[in-house]
Amino acid sequence: MDIKDIVKEENLVYKKTPLMTNNVLSYCPGCGHGTAHRIVMEVLEELGAQAETIGVAPVGCSVLAYEFMNIDMIQAAHGRAPAVATGIKRCYPDKYVFTYQGDGDLAAIGTAETIHACNRGENFTIIFINNGIYGMTGGQMAPTTLKGMKTSTSPYGRDLGSMGNPLKITELVAQLPGTYFVTRQAVHTPAAVRKTKKAVRKAFDLQKENKGLCFIEIVSNCNSGWKMSPVKANQWMVENMFPFYPMGDVKVDGQLVIKG
Amino acid sequence: MAKVQGAIVVDIERCKGCEVCVPACPTQVIELAKEVNGKGYHFAYMANPEACIGCANCAIVCPDGVISVYKVKQSA
Fold first, then answer.
1. Which residues in chain B (19-38) have CB-CB distances under 8 A to chain A?
2. Complex ipTM, two decimals?
3. Range of the domain at B35
């Protein structure tokens, strides 16, 4: 069968959602940010909530998220996205509100805002992209950088004695009473992307039911910061990031998941 | 048995040649082209179009969302 006979409007199975704009993404080739953006937008398309959603963009690689997500967005000061989202959600309790933050934004400068928003149980969704590095500024060490991981500010590997331990902020916020659904996912394979999409859908559904804060960590790659090709970076992520940041739900329906 | 035949269309100018779609394809349809696009990236293309089953795995993992997937069922 000729390709021209297959490529017809009625045979279409999948294409980029119209909730992503046609601007070319500013991310490096192979970066998980693009996939994460698209998943969130696909969920909003399923919910029919394009006009009912307000997103908060962070500082970091995804600072220009408002250029790519075709919804109402605001860009917050570094780390302050949960505080801005709190204000928006309290003014517009019927809208879907989410923040989209990286690890330098959420787990470093924004730790206070994140923890207090989670503790207050504010009714919005946090999408947290963890790649263990400050990608935008040139690959410096972040709080989430793994032990022994080489970055431009820890060229001999992260030394726990002088540089401290990597921070598992997802487990930390799961301990707080305000969070209702806390999970850790990834976007490196089709199966992982589908699972992440389900988690995002669940988080937005729970937000509609006013259940409390939903926190989704997406472990992602930073191939240019890690100095690897995109495919190698994904392999490295599976081998090194996943043992320390295990996949799966951390808190479901307000109850911690006990892993045995 | 009805045979499923798929096809992908890659937006060549937006493709960044990251190669993430290549291992995601279960039937090894996709390869990177020898030619480059306007930005100098080796873009993805269907090297083995007969094997495509239209599963959309490549499109789902594509960070830039440049792949559209089409599928038809052929009754033999």
1. 19-20, 22-24
2. 0.92
3. 3-74
